[in-house]
Write a structure and sequence with these properties.
The chain is 40% helix and 20% strand. The chain is an alpha+beta fold.
Length: 84
């Protein structure tokens, strides 16, 4: 699996947008490095853009949670010989 920029990632302030191809967008960054952008403001729904930005910013924590669940599954699978 490819490596990714380590967290924490942040979506930044909701009161500041960046224009990307004429669309108000929100950059997601790790420290001083930009890692993603949430754009595509639909019908002026800035709250949707920010919700998407927060979801993207949570990616490192979501990955860690999934890896934790996988470890639990593998432990239970080995303990109870559940097979695949």
């Amino acid at each position: 699996m490819a490596e990714f920029t380590k967290g924490p990632w942040k979506a930044g302030r909701a009161d500041m947008a960046t224009d990307v191809d004429g669309v108000p967008s929100k950059w997601i960054y790790a420290g001083d490095q930009y890692v993603a952008v949430a754009s595509g403001q639909i019908d002026g729904d800035w709250e949707e853009v920010m919700a998407n930005a927060r979801l993207i910013a949570a990616a490192p924590e979501l990955l860690a949670a999934c890896e934790g669940l996988l470890a639990v599954y593998e432990e239970l699978n080995a303990r109870f010989d559940m097979g695949d």
